[in-house]
Task: structure prediction
Amino acid sequence: MAFDLYHSEQWLLALLESPSDERGAIELACNGLYGAKSLYSQWTFSEPDDRARELFAVLADRKQQHLERFGSCLSGEYHPSSGGAVYDHLRTRNETAERIGAGVVARGLLEHSTYECFLTNLELTDDTRTTVEAIQGDVKTTLDDVRDVVEDYPASERKAIRESCDHTLQTGRDALSGTTPTTGTHGYRD
Result:
């Protein structure tokens, strides 16, 4: 499955120019969280499905909390960016199944995997390591909660959610492995 590549050092190297730089990792996480918070906030107002709209509101709040926790690990000023090209792409998703599959499930899997790469491959201070582990645990819990939400949808919608997730993960895998033209792996930062 495409997800396996995201557990590799190759994924981390694609994310970071300097894989031993803790500040770069935190900034990367903040950019992704800022992009996710903005995305979910936008979807909270534009989503016609009540269950999905409620999910997006909860996720926007969680990503704001995660952003604040990571921000407390940074010394000096830092202003997060919009999260990159992947968020530009996700903002164009209009169907509920696409939003949940690509924007919630695939994005959550990538986020969880990115934190695993941080923990495995970077020298982190104790405070940063504790923060990454806590947020990674919350991401795992969120993915479990989303699975329960998805189960409430009809089979055709569950299939569309799964396909959207798989497509997003495969696109990211292809970009990392260089098998398809891409504007760069930085679009898959999170």
User: Anything to note?
Assistant: Residues 1-8, 179-190 have pLDDT under 50 and may be disordered. Residues 104 and 176 are 20 Å apart (CA to CA). The two ends are 19 Å apart (CA to CA).
